[in-house]
Write a structure and sequence with these properties.
It is built from 5 helices and 5 strands. By secondary structure, it is mainly alpha-helical. The chain has a domain of about 100 residues. The longest helix is centred in the C-terminal third of the chain and has 91 residues.
């Protein structure tokens, strides 16, 4: 009996008046109903009302289910005298192991079952699309984070290179200055040596000057 489908249907205003949620304490107004139907016989096994908050719990698969029949547990399943949870399958003395016979070929599917099946199919497609979009959004965020990190790293590398070149340029200037000084000193020494040699070789030239 666990081959069940749970179809979430929005209540129209004219039928939502006075309907309260079957899944939470208090008298919260119901905005939706959940039809529980057998996948084999298309028979409705439960028709429960649910509020906005519990709807979110249902969509997140947070509502507990009976381990015997698969129905969603509602507040009326709790026996207040004993504070025990007793599912409808127990109250109705249902046999969860009993295999239900499928519809015969000549038995046509009801219109409500047909529309519920269409709704379930669309809801599954919507869930898959939302999951795919969420995955794509996460990938985009990761790409943006990596791009930003790469940009920061490239920027820092450029700044470090600029500082390195500036430091090297400063070192080159000091080296050029030092080499110029050495060149001037060598030039002066060479000139002085030439004058000394000239004076020793032609002393009379100095006298004539």
């Amino acid at each position: 009996m666990k081959n069940l489908t749970h179809t979430l249907l929005e209540l129209e205003d004219w039928c939502s008046d006075g309907s309260v949620c079957d899944f939470c304490f208090g008298l919260n107004k119901a905005s939706y109903q959940i039809k529980t139907r057998s996948q084999i016989t298309n028979k409705i096994l439960a028709n429960d009302f649910i509020c906005e908050n519990c709807k979110v719990r249902f969509e997140n698969d947070e509502l507990s289910k009976c381990s015997r029949c698969g129905r969603l547990r509602i507040q009326s399943d709790i026996e207040y005298l004993t504070n025990k949870v007793v599912c409808r399958c127990v109250k109705r003395n249902e046999n969860p192991e009993e295999k239900e016979l499928p519809n015969l070929p000549h038995e046509r599917e009801s219109m409500s079952a047909f529309y519920e099946r269409q709704i379930n199919s669309l809801q599954e497609q919507l869930t898959e699309t939302e999951e795919a979009l969420e995955i794509e959004r996460e990938e985009v965020v990761k790409f943006q984070e990596k791009s930003e990190e790469w940009g920061k790293r490239q920027k820092q590398e450029l700044l470090d290179r600029i500082k390195q070149l500036e430091a090297e340029n400063g070192n080159y200037k000091e080296e050029v200055k030092r080499l110029k000084t050495q060149l001037e000193q060598l030039t002066s020494q060479h000139t002085a040596q030439i004058e000394v040699k000239e004076n020793k070789r032609w002393p009379w030239l100095k006298l004539r000057k």
